[in-house]
Amino acid sequence: MVSVPAEPRPCSIARTLDIVGEKWALLAVREVFLGNRRFDEIVRRTGAPRDTLAARLRTLVGAGILERRPYNEHPARYEYYLTSAGRDLYPVIVTLMRWGDQYLAGEDGPPLVLEHHCGHQVTAQVVCEACGEPLRPTDTRPLTRGRQDAASVTA
Amino acid sequence: MVSVPAEPRPCSIARTLDIVGEKWALLAVREVFLGNRRFDEIVRRTGAPRDTLAARLRTLVGAGILERRPYNEHPARYEYYLTSAGRDLYPVIVTLMRWGDQYLAGEDGPPLVLEHHCGHQVTAQVVCEACGEPLRPTDTRPLTRGRQDAASVTA
DNA sequence: CTAGTAAGTCCGGAATCTGGATTTACTCTA
DNA sequence: TAGAGTAAATCCAGATTCCGGACTTACTAG
Question: What is the C-alpha to C-alpha distance for residues A18 and A31, in angstroms, rounded to an integer?
């Protein structure tokens, strides 16, 4: 009965998902990107339960993704702003959006279309920052640093 | 006591998160990208509870992201493969990874480094497919199609 | 005959999520 | 000045989900 040594990967994806890997967290961030910064507005736009949203906003503020700024005292009222770390979640949001546009849009197309300042509709593409080429799974492989047990990347 | 009309946005991000907006779902997909296709291996690498993982794999297969192929009969054994829809989640995965590398890596840097076939380490960047320029939140705005209540995008 | 492997399922307790009502401290309108 | 409205939560109790560990099934290898 030798138990197999469980060893979850140390992984940036897992760590990130511990913070934003839940529906309401990311939808709250989406709303702030769209300019809606108030609690009730975020509740209304996302459909999240108030309790749950309050908890998520706390986590996001604690993680340094959102900043809670008072806009009124007596009674205390707050708005949520993206920090620079929060703004850096933009790529995550737009790639999620693109996937949904591709695979889950109904007959009348994507529910929200963004326009880039170049004049075209936004279609998010992920490229290698170094060479500018599109990043495809088959074109990358784990760089060996110590023991690596990942097999090759194939579909 | 006029109840405020709740109207969650129809949104590709929300729809996508209904499928993959949970830690274990995306980590399972990560493992398959890394070439680990078997149930026990995915459990071991992600640390997910077996029950939960089984449920997530079912969802992912149902959503057309993974494909379950037998590699053995008697006893029946299966492997999970990415469909093309699944491979299209690569941008989501690498942008999540980049964010974690930036904000959550410890002293010894990112736990996993990918090498692009151009020879450089992978740093995922999101660009506008049309003009190739980096996509920044301030450079995009919702294109009005019918009523839109999103304010401008500002930080 | 025993041990190991692989892909799950079953279980019961713990934690989390959910919608609705309530609270607090105002401002605005009749 | 009373009543309604606004905004950010919080409280609650029931429903759901998550979790880890044990178990099952059907083999193969020694």
Answer: 20
Question: What are the tokens at A19?
Answer: 């913070």
Write out pLDDT tens, residues A57-93: 999 999 999 999 998 877 889 999 999 999 999 999 9
Does this model's pTM top 0.70?
A: yes
The single-letter DSSP state of residue B145 is: S
User: Which residues of chain B lie closer than 8 angstroms to A90, CB-CB?
Assistant: 126, 135-137
Buried b (16+ CB within 10 A) or exposed e, B13-24: bbbbbebbbbbb
Q: Which residues of B85-107 are buried (b: 16+ CB within 10 A; e: fewer)?
A: bbbbbbbbbbbbbbbbbebbeee
Inter-CA distances, A149 with A7, A81, B121, B148, Å: 11, 41, 19, 49
pLDDT in tens, A5-27: 557 888 999 999 999 999 999 99
**Residue from the list A26, A120, A127 with its beta carbon closest to the beta carbon of B130:** A120
Is the separation of the CB atoms in B21 and A22 below 8 Å?
yes
Neighbours of A98 (CB within 10 A): 24
